[in-house]
Design goal:
Length: 416
């Protein structure tokens, strides 16, 4: 029994000691989320498009069997006959269409890869923000508990002071009202924390327990970062920008694909044809075999301005994508700059919030001493408690803002 108890205790200790880090939760989300799997399918489809584009370099092999029935025999064709036909066709030149289609398909494949990376970064950011929300609500619950404990102690002291006639019942009721409000606030904070843990689990794709989170990522306040360095990394790494650049390049190849119709086409054809005067080829009395090799050169001179319009449309698409790229780049630069402004302000506010807590704690200490001496009213004591609670809530909000801006900056530079 002692050995069994020791084993159970060891297992429980190991289960409670394990804590999921932010990276582990993000990796779990990427593994389990169906959205990632959907974009992986898009990537695989784009790889098939490359194979389809390369098929133009291979010959085409066709085989057909045809039976014919005439109302009477013709000069060179029996009333009942059949034709066996096979041909191998190989396009030697189509105005570089195949070459540019392959290059375009390869770029589209890279576009899908960048889009997949962007979705992964969005999910990692979503997990980080959900994790930050759990941290904030847990910290708010701790503040609410401390506020309740302080008010409960004041209320108990108030009961003792009422018993000895130092305060009247009306003053004690004021303490009770604030204590009840603190109870409501604490319960609301506890419910909010439970919901935030559930939301984190939904984002990851598996159940999460509050005890498995150690919030080690929030123990140290990060340092400020240079905007210029972040902008450089964003322009180099941001998936949406990389995808649009590849789309711009692919659209240039699409222009060349459409322009290929201006060029002549060269192909070779090798065919075999066997005629027989019977439905079942080979059973008749008259047979005619033919082997033919052909070199086919063709050029389109006019098809209703179809080629001209196709080329013009492809060029317009290229210009439109370039405008999209410039617009998105300017938008991201502006967003990143605003994030850095907010980040710098929130970092400065951390020290302000800490000083406010120290001052509020000192104010509460002095107010309680004066209240015990009868030099302060109960409303002054309650105000001091409220000020301390507000200062603590402000600190939690400031820390949340710091990491919120940091996570979003990391997302902007694809480093979340």
């Amino acid at each position: 029994m002692r050995l069994f108890s020791f084993i159970v205790l060891l297992v429980l200790s190991a289960s409670t000691a394990y804590c999921m880090s932010l990276d582990e939760m993000q990796d779990a989300a990427l593994e389990k989320r169906e959205l990632v799997k959907r974009f992986m399918i898009n990537l695989e489809k784009s790889e098939r498009d490359i194979g389809l584009a390369r098929s133009g370099y291979y010959p085409s092999v066709d085989l057909s069997y045809q039976t014919n029935t005439l109302d009477e025999d013709a000069t060179f064709e029996a009333e009942e006959n059949s034709v066996l036909y096979g041909a191998v066709t190989w396009n030697l030149f189509r105005g570089f269409r195949d070459k540019y289609q392959i290059q375009s398909a390869e770029l589209f494949n890279e576009v899908e890869d960048h889009q997949l990376n962007g979705i992964k970064q969005d999910i990692r950011l979503d997990v980080a923000l959900r994790y930050l929300d759990v941290y904030e609500r847990r910290a708010n619950l701790e503040v609410a508990k401390k506020n309740y404990e302080t008010l409960d102690k004041i209320y108990r002291d108030g009961e003792n002071r009422l018993d000895v006639g130092l305060i009247d019942r009306n003053e004690l009721l004021k303490f009770k009202v604030d204590l009840n409000n603190s109870i409501i606030t604490t319960e609301a904070a506890r419910a909010g924390l439970e919901k935030s843990v559930n939301n984190l689990g939904r984002t990851i794709g598996e159940s999460v327990q509050l005890g498995s989170l150690d919030f080690g990522e929030f123990k140290d306040i990060p340092e400020n970062e240079e905007y210029e360095n972040s902008e450089r990394l964003m322009l180099e790494n941001r998936s949406e920008l990389l995808a649009l650049r590849k789309l711009v390049d692919a659209s240039l190849y699409q222009v060349k694909v459409e322009e290929s119709d201006y060029y002549p086409k060269v192909g070779v054809v090798g065919s075999y044809r066997k005629y027989d005067d019977d439905y079942l080829n080979g059973n008749g009395n008259v047979e005619d075999d033919e082997l033919r090799a052909q070199l086919v050169l063709s050029i389109n001179l006019f098809q209703g301005l179809f080629t001209e319009e196709s080329v013009a449309k492809a060029r317009l698409e290229n210009r439109g994508l370039q405008y999209d790229l410039d617009e998105l780049t300017d938008t991201f630069k502006n967003e990143l700059k605003n994030l850095h402004i907010d980040y710098a302000v929130s970092l400065r506010n951390v020290n302000v919030a800490l000083i406010s807590i120290e001052q509020a704690e000192e104010n509460l200490r002095i107010t309680r001493l004066k209240y015990d001496e009868g030099l302060q009213r109960e409303s002054d004591l309650l105000d001091a408690v409220t000020n301390l609670s507000r200062a603590q809530y402000d600190y939690v909000a400031v820390v949340r803002t710091v990491f919120l801006n940091r996570f979003r900056i990391l997302r902007m530079i694809e480093a979340i």
